[in-house]
Amino acid sequence: MKPAELQKEIRLRAARIITNASSSHIGGVFSSADILAILYGEILARTDAGFIDSFILSKGHCCAGVYSALNALGFLSDELLDTYAQDGSPLMAHISHHVPHVEFSTGSLGHGLPFGIGKALASKAKGNGKHVYVLLSDGELDEGSNWEAIHFAGHHKIDNITAIIDYNKLQSLTTTRETLDLEPLSDKFKAFRWNCLRCNGHNIDDLRAAFEVPHNNSPKIILCDTIKGHPVDFMLNQVVWHYRPPSAEQLAVITQQLNRVYQ
């Protein structure tokens, strides 16, 4: 399935399972869905059996997007997907390595990037050619563990790691600017010797171009400007959709809007 198809399918499937489970984080799932679409549809090297490259979802609360991508690609059954966030299901509301093709459990923020950098360093030592991709939230950059890892990777020129920030500028209860202002964010990463790029996180061509830029003997990070809840009109840039699940009536509107946007 190509990225253009996955953009819609990830959102449709995630909206359904989040609504059915009365779970949360649909806003962040929708802001990162296009990033997941290009990663799973084009960037991650894989075989029919699974993935060669590594992908770590550090913003583990948005796992419904990953589960939906794996389902759309045929790596996760419909029956299993429909157990999302139900008692006894491996598809917990924060991502779990007990799910097929998920490498690392996350939920406590600030752990995915340090793990991913360690994995990238191990891959370089083994010479296996594997690349590691890590998707983080912007609010997650408040965690000091990330900056220790960022410093380490830049110093050691770990050039087989690509970090991606879902920069929707809303976290938990308010804006990132009001919580802990991250700007000038690009300058911070450049100061730590990362190759830092910025793009429209909802545009597949922009995303593709950013992923194709060479590392130049440095770790790479892509700041993806996104909008929480995109493209559903009543969810756009609304912090309440960090936690609120849609109702059945709202799911019908979401489905209608997605079918219209992604014809």
What does this protein structure show overall?
With 263 residues, the protein is of the alpha/beta class. The chain has one domain (3-261): Thiamin diphosphate (ThDP)-binding fold, Pyr/PP domains (Rossmann fold). Helix content is 43%, strand content 13%. It is built from ten helices and seven strands. The protein has helices at 3-21, 26-43, 63-72, 78-81, 112-126, 144-155, 176-180, 185-191, 204-212, 248-261, and strands at 54-57, 132-137, 161-167, 170-171, 174-175, 195-200, 220-225. The strands form two sheets. It has a five-stranded parallel beta sheet, sandwiched between helices. It starts with a helix and ends with a helix.
Keyword list:
single chain, 263 residues, five-stranded parallel beta sheet, two-stranded antiparallel sheet
